[in-house]
Every structure is written in C-alpha cells, then in structure tokens.
User: Fold this.
Amino acid sequence: MSLETLVSADIAKTGRVSEAALAYLSQRAKNVCYDFVMKKFLDSGMTKAELARRLGSRPDRVNHILASPANWTIRTIAELLAAISQEEFIPHSTKLAGRLPRNITQADLLLGIKKQSSTNAETASGSRAHTVKLELAA
Amino acid sequence: MSIHTALQSAVAAKTLDFLPVDRSDPVERVMLVGQEVQQLWAISGRNSVRIKRLLADLQAFVRGDVISMCFTPRQHREAYLGRLEPTNSGCWDIRSRDPDPSLRVFGFFVRPDFFVTLDWWPRWKTVPWSNKEPLLDEDARWASAIAECGKKFQAILPGITPVVSMEVAKHVSGNVSLC
Assistant:
C-alpha cells in the first residue's frame, strides 16, 4: 500500500489518520532527517572530535548522537546543521498524493547482479566495463 | 548456484520477499525478508504501531540512507547495524530501538548492499503479538538465536556463504558511519 493510500484510506474510513500510519510517517520523517544531517556530516569530512568541539560537547556524547536518531529533536537537528555546515534547518514537505514511482525497484537491483556477473565476464575478456547502477539509471 | 539464482529462486518460492517500500522511495540497496519477518506485516490493530516503526527503520536501509554500523560485537550501543558473535557466522542485527519495546532483526549480507533478514527478537521485554522470549543479556539465548538464523539461511539459500569480513565495502557501498 502506498503512503497516500494508507493515509487517505484511514481518513475516508474513520475521519482520522490511524495511530499506525502516524507512527509510520513520523518514524520515516525521523530517519529522513537523520539521513539528511548525516550526509552533511559525511560530506564535510569533519571528524566526530571536531564536531564535538564545535558543539562544545563531549566526544562520547557526539558519538551517541550520530549513531542513531532515536533521541533526536528539532533542536538536535538545528544544532548539528549549524555546527557541521553553518546551515539553518528549514522544513520542506511534499504531498503524499501524486508522487511519481521510482524507476528502480529492488527486483531490478537483484536482476542487476546477474547483469553485473555477465559484465564482469566481459571485462575479463577485455570488453568495456559498465556498472549495474549506470545501466539501470540509463 | 550463483547468488542471483539462489535469491531469485527463494523469491519465486516465496521463502524470501522484498521489503515493502513506498513506490516513491528511492531504492539503493536490497533487503530480502524471510517468512518470520514477513509475518510481522500482517499484524494489525494497536500492535501494528510498533511494527510500522520497525518497517520504517528497515526501509532506511533500502532507501540508501546513511546507516551506522559497528563491527565490534557487544559494543554496538546505538548503531543501526551490529555484527554479532561468533563473527565468522556473518550474522548481523538491525536494531530498532525506538520506541519501546526494542526489537532486533537478524540477518546476513550476501553481497554489498544486499541484506537477507530471517528472524527477529524482542530485546528486553516480551511483546504482545508474540510469545518469543526477549534476548536480554543471556548469552545462551543470543547464541541459539544466531545459530537458528544461520540454519534458516542455509535452508533458504543452500550453498551461498554470507559475507564474513571486516571490510565495510564488502557490506555496503557507501553512506555509512562507523561506530
């Protein structure tokens, strides 16, 4: 079931979004925020020790924060972005309805193993190498 | 039998299925799910709240989100993925810690970015939708759960060896933070 269907079906049926749908969407939001901030951190090349210095925090505390979004709040996100990339956290959201499906599925990636195997064989014989992900994206 | 053929056969036989994701989600990694974990998706009512959060946590892997990994057993703390003992089993757990009750999903990497999950356990407390005993800090329970998961792996993917390595690149191709 798509996210859109999940939420709209709840509202149509009971007039409210179910607790399960709310839990699902809030956990996804938390994970997306974690991914967003962690990509900034990894791209920055900054060490955890340097981040701890910028936050005026202990390194073990920063290790704890960066390992999981479990205890993250909006304040955590804002502070991390300020220290990592000198950015302000400005929320952005998109409608659940009308989202386009992605071109690549997990089944495609599984199929890609097979392609990759045959490509590796070609590479060994001197043919041009391609990566599976490039093939699938093309 | 190649990894591709073994995985395809298991999907065709419905002993493994792809983790459900939203059709608009990017797909950068693959998570194949055994029946023990698949059964969780059928849980409805009040208990489905915790399951939906678990599903969201597992989807982070498939979307290619940054994940934290710990290669040192018993030092996982808040890591998303922790390598379990005995390390030569290749068994890992995905740790869904929020909210209570904390859950552990056991599985194996079969190649970079491909994870096969075959079992799950409550970490500290019993859960209302299952009679599984929590693992607690009981070494014997952990050892039994890991061994059982290994047996399931061999039954579903005979002849395939899980990744056993200290190299990050043998597990995931990117977007990882080591703990």
User: Anything to note?
Assistant: Chain A is about 65% helix and 0% strand. Chain A touches chain B at residues 2-3, 19-21, 23-24, 27-28, 30-32, 34-35, 38-39, 41-42, 63-64, 66-71, 99-102, 104-111, 113-114, 117 (CB under 8 Å).
